[in-house]
Amino acid sequence: MERLDKVLANLGYGSRKEIRKIAKNGEIEVDGKIIKDFSMKVDPYNSEIKVAGEKIFYREYVYILMNKPDGVVSATVDNYDETVIDLLSPELQVFNPAPVGRLDKDTVGLLFLTNDGDLNHRLTSPKHHVDKVYYAEIDKSVDEEDIEVFKNGVTLEDGYECLPAKLEIINANEHGSEILLTISEGKFHQVKRMFKAREKEVVFLKRVKMGPLELDDSLDEGTFRELTEEEVKVLKAI
Ligand code: URA
């Protein structure tokens, strides 16, 4: 049970002071009754709470799937660039979600955000090896040798030996290639550095999958949606 004013403040309905005013105006209903006592304890999950006639949807955590656009940084704050948090609606920003792992400023595609710190940690911890699938366009012809080297763990220019990765060629010729790459770790600039180790350059990079989450065709770049309960369940089970 939580105080009514705290429940509504958590959801971004205003400061406690503003909520008290809304309550005094008779605009808050709990289970069909107008409640002016903002300190009343309510069960936010099971009571029907309405503000100005609109039913609230109470939750502690939010789970958001975004199709990250080019030119936006995967951080919560930045002095120069627009962040993925700036793209969210104010209703979601009040939950203080953070990106789970990072995509480079010029990488697009699937980015998962949440304020569930445990889940964030589990999905990004090097112990857990969550598969991430990237679609990439490469400046040169990708070949069988690249597949073999990535399968055995390519060594980056700083000597780091990557875990085995699965490289699939969609098409390749002397003008460039399109590929899918599955990796289970998330080092800084990892995909770009893996190709650099093969003297090839990533010219376009898009994440299409992370664990059980797939990029939604319905999500345009720069848009987002909350995960369904079923998707959250599957994600937490990994
Ligand atoms: N690998 C990269 O090089 N960049 C990303 O944004 C993600 C993976």
UniProtKB/TrEMBL annotation:
Its Gene Ontology molecular function terms? RNA binding; rRNA pseudouridine synthase activity
Asked if the record carries the keyword Endoplasmic reticulum, the reply is no
Q: Name one GO cellular component term.
A: cytosol
Under which name does UniProt file this protein?
Pseudouridine synthase
- Alphabetical list of SUPFAM superfamilies matching this protein: Alpha-L RNA-binding motif, Pseudouridine synthase
Q: Boundaries of each RNA-binding S4 domain copy?
A: 2-60
SMART domains, per this entry?
S4
- Which Pfam families does the entry mention? PseudoU_synth_2, S4
What EC identifiers does the entry list? Answer: 5.4.99.-
Top-level taxon of origin: Bacteria
In the record, which residues are listed under signal peptide?
none
BP-aspect Gene Ontology terms = enzyme-directed rRNA pseudouridine synthesis
What family does this belong to? Belongs to the pseudouridine synthase RsuA family.
EC category: isomerase
Natural source organism: Clostridium grantii DSM 8605
UniProt keyword annotations, A-Z: Isomerase, RNA-binding
> Is NAD among this UniProt entry's keywords?
no
Task: Enumerate the InterPro entries for this protein.
Answer: PsdUridine_s_RsuA/RluB/E/F_cat, PsdUridine_synth_cat_dom_sf, PsdUridine_synth_RsuA/RluA, PsdUridine_synth_RsuA/RluB/E/F, PsdUridine_synth_RsuA/RluB_CS, RsuA_PseudoU_synthase, S4_RNA-bd, S4_RNA-bd_sf
